Amino acid sequence: MVSIFITGLICALIIWVLAQPFMSFIPFLNVSLNGIWAILLVALVLGLVCAFIVPAVKKYFKKANAIIYFIAALVINALALILSSYIVNIFIPGGFGIDFISALIVAAILSLVVVGFSLKK
User: What would the DSSP string read from start to end of 65-81?
Assistant: First the structure.
């Protein structure tokens, strides 16, 4: 459970950095994250969603070729971000906002960072 929260916290920290005004050089990036409680709730929700829902859905695309698996993984991670946004906004209205194009961009960045952390082991 602790590693789920740490993974979610790293992802929430990356999302928080991407929500800052100095990241406006990335086109179509529309992310809003307001307050420390929203960041912690995003960490918890994103950690739980990525731990339980995403692997269950990705297992159906394992047998596909690499390009289809990559596209499916990107879309699934983007949908996980949008689901996390809806769940966080239930508890903290206006706490976390993201649209689909931004979710795809953030999912790609998160995928690169997670791969980078997994290569360190």
Answer: -HHHHHHHHHHHHHHHH
